[in-house]
């Protein structure tokens, strides 16, 4: 019976052969995937995960992370305190292409005459 079906497929045109072969391959792949999925879900139900214990090394790491979080949370406040009393210096003079240096408080002359 299988050989009879195979001979019927061989007698068809190329585009029909490709469609049939692709459909059969896809069906077999789907069946294997569904079997794996059902088996995988049933194996997950039987697995028990041990509870995580805090060891000395992980406790030290957790303390390190907590310390870093504390330092970064106060960093913004420290920067504001550091620069609160620092005044930003204002420029005393600026230059123009025509006159050279303009003293602080002077009005610049128009460049167009």
Entry keywords:
113 residues; mainly alpha; two-stranded antiparallel sheet; 3 helices; 2 strands; 63% helix; elongated
How would you describe this protein?
- Residues 104-113 have a biased composition (Acidic residues).
- The chain crosses the membrane at residues 20-38.
- Residues 85-113 are annotated as: Disordered.
- Keywords: Membrane, Transmembrane, Transmembrane helix.
- The chain is built from 3 helices and 2 strands.
- It is mainly alpha-helical and 113 residues long.
- The chain has a domain at 1-47.
- Strands 1-2 form a two-stranded antiparallel ribbon.
- Strand 1 (94-96) and strand 2 (100-102) form a beta hairpin.
- It is elongated.
- The model has no long low-confidence stretch (mean pLDDT 77).
H-E order: HHHEE
What distance lies between the first and last C-alpha atoms, to the nearest angstrom?
A: 106 Å
- Which regions contain 5 or more consecutive residues with pLDDT less than 50? none
Number of strands: 2
Global outline: elongated
Our count of helices gives 3
Roughly what is the average pLDDT, rounded to an integer? 77
Query: What is the helical fraction, as a range of percent?
Result: 55-70%
- Report strand order across the widest sheet: 1-2
Biggest sheet statistics: 2 strands, antiparallel
Beta-strand percentage?
A: 5-15%
| Radius of gyration over all CA atoms, rounded | 40 Å
Structural class: mainly alpha
């Amino acid at each position: 019976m299988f050989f009879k079906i195979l001979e019927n497929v061989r007698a068809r045109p190329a585009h029909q052969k490709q469609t049939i072969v692709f459909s059969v391959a896809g069906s077999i792949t789907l069946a294997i995937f569904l079997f794996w999925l059902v088996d995988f879900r049933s194996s997950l139900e039987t697995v028990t995960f041990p509870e995580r214990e805090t060891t000395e090394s992980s406790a030290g790491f957790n303390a390190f992370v907590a310390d870093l979080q504390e330092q970064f949370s106060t960093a913004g406040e420290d920067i504001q305190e550091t620069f609160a009393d620092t005044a930003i210096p204002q420029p005393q003079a600026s230059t123009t292409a025509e006159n050279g240096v303009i003293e602080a408080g002077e009005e610049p002359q128009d460049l167009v005459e």
